[in-house]
Each structure stands twice: as structure tokens, then as C-alpha cells.
Amino acid sequence: MSELPMSADPHVHVARSPWWFKLLGRMLEPWVRIKRDPAEPATLLHSGVAVCYAIERDGTSDALILERACREAGLPSPMQLLDLPVRRRRSVFSLSRREGWLFGRTDARGPKEPIGQLIRALEDDPTRDIQIVPVSIYVGRAPNRESGWFSVLFAENWLVVGRFRRMLALLLNGRDTVVHFSTPVSLRAVLAESGGLTPERLTRKIARVLRTHFRRIRAAVIGPDLSHRRTVVDAVLNTGPVRDAIAATASKENITLAKAQRRARDFALEIAADYSHPVVRSSSFLLSNFWNKLYDGIAMHHFDKARAAAPGHEVVYVPCHRSHTDYLLLSYQLHHSGVVPPHIAAGVNLNLPVVGPILRRGGAFFLRRSFKGNALYSVVFNEYLAQLVDRGVPLEYFIEGGRSRTGRLLAPRAGMLAMTLRAFLRAPRRPVMFQPVYIGYEKLMEGKSYIGELSGKPKEKESLLGLIRGLKVLRQRYGHVTLNFGEPILLTPMLDEAAPNWREATADPDVKPEWMNSVVDDLAERIQVNINRAADVNPINLLALALLATPKHAMAENDLLAQLELSKALLQELPYSDRVTVTPMNPQGIVAYGEQMGWIRRVRHPLGDVLVTDGEQAVLLSYFRNNVLHLHAAAAWVAACFLNNRRMSRSSVLRLGRIIYPFIQGELFLPWDEDGFADQLQHTIEFFVRRGLLEASSEGRVLERGPGQDDGAYQLRVIARAMLQAFERYYIAIAALVKNGPHTMSAGELETACTLTAQRLSLLNELSAPEFFDKALFRGFIQKLREAKVVWTDNAGKLDFSDALEDMVRDARVILAREVRHSILKITPGGENERDLDARPPVDPDDGSAGESLHDRHVANEHTRHDRPH
User: Fold this and answer.
1) Please, is 211 exposed, middle or buried when counting C-beta atoms within 10 Å of its C-beta (0-12, 13-18, 19+)?
2) How far apart are CA 514 and CA 521, in angstroms?
3) Residue 272: partners with Cβ closer than 8 Å, 6 or more residues away
């Protein structure tokens, strides 16, 4: 084994390795496969300068691995001699040394002696230099799914292990060995910049810098060292805010200080994660088999962009929340992609026996649903989160607060965002990056329970028994899952824009800057928008959009294929965002896949097969339609303008679109302002004209669709009905308010009246969308009316409104058919001021928008269309 050092330094001498070292190297070689990082580390070294390697831990195995990695890369051997005043046998030293052969202990002197020798050598000879190359060696960072159980247990971690454990790690995980070469440090340059430090102090400084470097590299590769839970808890309890809160609690409740301290410690232990690298790796090993049983594949898109943006930032993953598997999937995929899994904020309801401790060791920290009335708990939780942010621990939480039961993004609850912002303001050492993640499913384990909850059944509390009962869902297959990484949001530029003097904000946790609420709200909005801009459109989404737009949830096969082709063309020609992904399947493949997954069934017929989704399946499909509803919002609005009108001016489509947009935007988190939405409507109109669904006349000022039985009119109806229920909900709210008159209903009473009206309308019309009467959607619409100053609260707590609300009632006649409006008005409860809202002249009577009402003919067409031969 010859060593050919790159250095021409006369003080470096090539030496043969001892016979036993060569023998051990040959014995170890079949068990170790080395991956160098970077692949060509020779490019890092300075030619003509002696090389001395620094490794983290002392040990023969690390020396063997380093020697082989250097030989394979063409680097100077660590076994060569350095000619110093006291000649060093090797060109390598470690930060920790073990005295003794078998049961040696770590030598506390560490690297002081070799670093001191190197410094004295340079002082004796001003013409020479030595470059110190830090080298990190990791055996078994992340065993793959073929690895055995013991491989996971003996993977690399933060623990200082003995020789026997290191030997087992090499035997089990040696084929997954990473040798990371860092940029060399010129010792001569360090001496020149030492500022007159004594050799002893300079030695300690270099050792300290090397330890910090190795900790940083290890944290990046295997995650931060948070295995000592009590250390974090003690740090939390020793902060000033927690000590003050303990004293305040003791005084307020007239209890001893010791009792208040015990309560604070109990809170901290209830909250804190107990991160364990062996448990994370063991869980990853088990989840590999679990995902294989549940899913046909897990895809990630735009992850490379997210990974490239992350270095140097405190990363906060903010995914949408649709299933209990969300956080497991994201952590699993990050771990297997070589990224440290985040610490996850989980509801305390998941802190179950057996399950809770496993989640805690996997990085979960638990929080109560409400902090109200418990000031001490609130302070402890805030300080714990601040500790994580200060230590650079990646985080993950769901700003929706809970899982979406409708498939739409929920209105954000910004509590965690506010706490993260406060933690950053107190110690802005590392910039914060929020990473939105869209998670798309083709079938949900919780689907049936979501339907029950939306229909009024109480939410079933999490319990160990319920978890065991729920294992039956593992018998099914759930198709594919997609994780799309959205455009990251950097906190510092947001703060610079909103409050240029934010750096002067006090670190006092009791002081709240006046601009903070607006920044948090803006941040929450941007996160939701960027999640939606990274949507994945899978085959089930497209089938749901088409089939749920027909009264019987059935379409002739040719019609369905044409509608699927149109939907894909719309997404591809008018891309919502460069991060939206669309299934590559053609329409025939989508139909076949839907049948295979059990979402649709085929009814054979001599005049052409019909594809149908029945009963509960149709209700479940509404979830997947709602996942991508925002992508079709502009197209649905344009199409809806021609539901009851044959002809309409382009200006009316745009004018009414601007009026309706704030309400659609608030519900679906759309990315445009009003002008941007108008531009999107223009592009959509041009798309429909190109496809022959609309005709433009009078130099493009007037738009016209074909007659009701025309294929183009039918396709427009299907697109429009994706959003029609939202427009009907808006009409229910404004009709209820106008019908009852001003100063008669409070916001809560209006929400209740709207919910009851929608429930009854749903029963009468067999709507397959339980979110139609979701109270939260009505609440959001009313809030948007308030923000637009169309509605406000009087001194008695009742709602008053402007004439603009009555104009909106009249505008609704353009979109909603007469029979729909009459049904809503008939069901909606009215008070003493009840008025006939439909006895008003239509809007824009001379612009072509008051064309023939074709609603009745449309309904009849849809009932008979499937029987037409093709």
C-alpha cells in the first residue's frame, strides 16, 4: 500500500503503514463502501502545502476508512510522517482520544497536544505552512429499506460509542459510509490573524472552532443533538419569562413557589419532544413496509428547489393538513432524501399511551388546543418553541389548526406563526424560511368519518382503542400520494417591507409591535396561496370535477373523455403556476384508473357505455374535487355567466368577475389581485373561443355560446357547476340578510339561518357536497362582506348593509337560474321586513346579458344526453 503525497513539503516523509494496519484494512475492505463528499476532494487542497487531517473521533476503524478514502481520491495519506520538533507518526489527529486498547477511556486532553506541536513547528520555521483538513466520517447515516433491524439500531448518531459497537456498525452499515472532506484551513493564516494570542490560547481556540465545525456538519447530516430532553426543559425553565410566570402564578393562586415550579416543569415535560435518532431510523425502517402496503407510490416534486434554498435558514415546513398520515409522510420522505426530519407540533389529543411516546421520540412536541386561561402554560410553550428556533431545529406545523374535512384549505389559525415570529425577533441569528407543501391523495383513510362530521355527527375523540379499530383500513389500497414543495417564503424580506425598523423591536416578550398582527396575517395568507400554487392534479381530481357536475353523477363515456381532455388542456395552456403538476395519463387511462380504484363503475349500454359514481362514493369524491377547485375558478366563472344567458358582453363578464372575486379569493386562496383575476378571465375567454365553446362578435365585445343541446354548451355547463354551489351559498347569505332587512340579524344569527337554509336545500336537491352547508364557509363570506364595508355591525350588535348588497342580489340573476333563486328565497327564513327580492329589473338589460333563460332546457338535456348515440 504505497502513499504518494501531493505535497512537495520537505518536512513530510512517506512511511509504510504497519503490517497489522494493512491486514485490518484488507479485512475491512469487503464490508465498507465509501461515498466521498465532495466526490473529488483533491480540488480542495493547496498544492505544495503539507496536509494534516483532523477527524472527530479517535479509532482504528476511522483511520482505516480515512486512509482508504484518501488513497481512492489520490490525496496524501494520513499515515505519512510529519517532521516536527517532536516527529508525529501520522498526518492525522482526532478531537477525542481513547487511552488503552480494549476498554480505554476518552482522554480529556483531546487535540491540544497535536495542535500545539503544529503551531510550534510553524513558529520555528516561518517559511512553512500546514493545511488542516477536517474530515467527518459517518457509518450508516440512513439505512435503506433493505437494511435489517439491527442496521437501524447501529446507525450513526450523536452518542460516543465504544469499539465493540463501532465494529458492529461497520459490519452492518459499512456499505453506507460517508466521508465528508471540508475546506482546508491554513494554519499559517490562523497564526497571522491570532492577534498575539499565546500558543496555549490559540490551541484552545482552534480546538473549539474544530468542535463547532464538526457539530455543525453532524447536525446537517443526521440532525441536531436534542436527545437530552431534560437539558432543553431546564433551559426553558431557566428563562426570565418562565421564572416571572412561575412567580406570578404562585402569587395569584396563593401557592408555594416550589409548587408553581413543579407545575411549570410538568407543562414543559408534557410539551417537549424526546428526539431519538435510533427511533427515527427505526420508524423509517418500519414505515417503508407500511407505505408499501398502503400506497402504490409516493412522489415528490420541486424538492431540489426546496433543498437548495434551505441552507443557512431556520426551515419551517407548513403543509396542508388532510390526513393523520401527513406528518409521517413528510418526515419519512425528508429523512430518505437526506434531510433532517423536522420537529412537529402535534395536538395533545395524539399523546396516547404507547403512541405518544413513539411520536415524541420521533420529534413530535405536543400542544393544547387552547391556551386561554392558563398563562403559565402559554409562557412555557412559547419559551420551548423559542428554544427550538434558537437551536436551529427544523419545524413543522399545520396553520389550518386541524385536518380539512372538505378538501379545501381551511382559514389559517396564526397562533404558531405568531409564536415563531416572536421567537425570531428575540434572537434573529438565523433567517427563517417557511416552506409550503401541498399533499395530494387519491383516497383518504378518514374519508367516511369526514362525511359524518360534516353531516352533523360529533368528532370521534382519538383513543388507543379507536386506533386499534381503525387498523382495518390497512386492508385497502390508497393509490398514489404526491408531495409538492411550493415557493418558499422568507421572513426577513417580509419584515423589511412591512416594518423597516423591525430590528429595533424589543426582545421583551410582553411587548407586541403594532405591525405584528398584519405581518402574521399576511404571512398566513401567503402560505395558503403558495400551497395552492403547488397543487397536484391527479386522475381522481379530474374525474370528480367532471362527474359531480351532472345531476345523476353519470356521463356517457365519450362525453367524459372529451371533458377530461378539455380540463387537461385548460390546465396546460393556462398554467396556474409553474409548480402545479398534472397527471400524465390520457383520458382513457384516467377512466380506466378510476374504475380500478373503485371510484367509478361502468354501465354497459348498446348505445354507448355510461360511467357513474354512486351514493357515498359521490360524496367522497367531492373532497377531491375541492382539492383543485381553485385551479378552475376563473374558467368556472366565465362558464357560469353562460348558464342562463346565450349572449353576454365581455365587459359584463369582467365587471361581475371583479365584484365576485374577493369572495372567491377568500374561500380558495387565489394568487391574483382584482386586475390579475380580470387578466386571467381574459385569457380564459380566449381559450374558450379557440376551443369553439364561445364565439366572439362585434370586434370581440360580445360573446355567445351555442344552443343548449350543443356539445360546447354542455362542456361549459360542466365547468360552471364546479363553482355553482359556492355562488348559491353567497346568494343564500345576501338573500337572507336583505330579505330580513337591516338591524334585524346578528352575524351569528345570519350564520345559523344560512346553514339551516343550505341544509334544507341540500336535502331537497340531493346535493353530494356536505361542505355546502359548512358554517365556516358562511362565516368567511360574511367576514369578506364586512371587509368590503358592504355589511357592518350597528350599536345593538345587528347587521346593517349598504345598497350595494341589494345590487349583488340583482346581479345574481345573471348566474343563478330562476328556479334556484326561488327555491332559496322560499326556504330562507324571513322577518317582519320580508320582501320579494326577485321582483326587480335585471342588471344591464341592454348589454346582451339578459338573453334567454335556458335552465329548464339544460336540465332536460342532461337527463337525456347519455342516451344519444355517438
Assistant:
1) middle
2) 13
3) 229, 232, 233, 236, 360, 365, 384
Q: What are the tens digits of pLDDT across the range 588-630?
A: 999 999 999 999 999 999 999 999 998 788 888 999 999 999 9
**Could you tell me if 815 and 727 are in contact, meaning their C-beta atoms sit under 8 angstroms apart?**
yes
User: What confidence tens digit (pLDDT) does each residue in 73-131 have?
Assistant: 889 888 888 766 656 678 889 887 655 544 444 454 557 778 888 888 888 888 888 89
* C-beta separation of 521 from 662 below 8 A: no
611, 539 contact by CB (below 8 A): no
Indicate the angle between helix axes 775-787 and 711-740, nearest 10 degrees.
Answer: 70
Q: Which of 198, 200, 138, 145 is nearest to 170 (CA)?
A: 138
Can you tell me the distance from the alpha carbon of 574 to that of 636, in angstroms, rounded to the nearest whole number?
14
Model pLDDT for residues 198-219, shown as the tens digit of each residue: 888 888 888 888 888 887 777 6
Residues 6+ apart with CB under 8 A from 9: 48, 49, 50, 128
The three cell numbers locating residue 224: 441536531
Residue 526 phi/psi, 5° resolution? Answer: -65, -40
**Number of Cβ within a 10 Å radius of residue 833:** 12
Q: Which cell is 2 given?
A: 504505497
What is the β-pairing status of strands 297-301 and 480-485? parallel
CA 714 to chain centre: 38
Pairing of strands 702-704, 177-181: unpaired
Residue type, 321: H
- For residue 696 the three cell numbers come to 366572439
Q: Cα(245)–Cα(247) distance, rounded to whole angstroms?
A: 5
**Beta carbons of 417 and 524 less than 8 angstroms apart:** yes
CA atoms within 13 A of residue 632's CA, in its CB half-sphere: 30
Angle, nearest 10°, between helix axes 375-390 and 257-271?
50
Task: Please give the Cα distance from 488 to 318 (Å, whole number).
Answer: 10
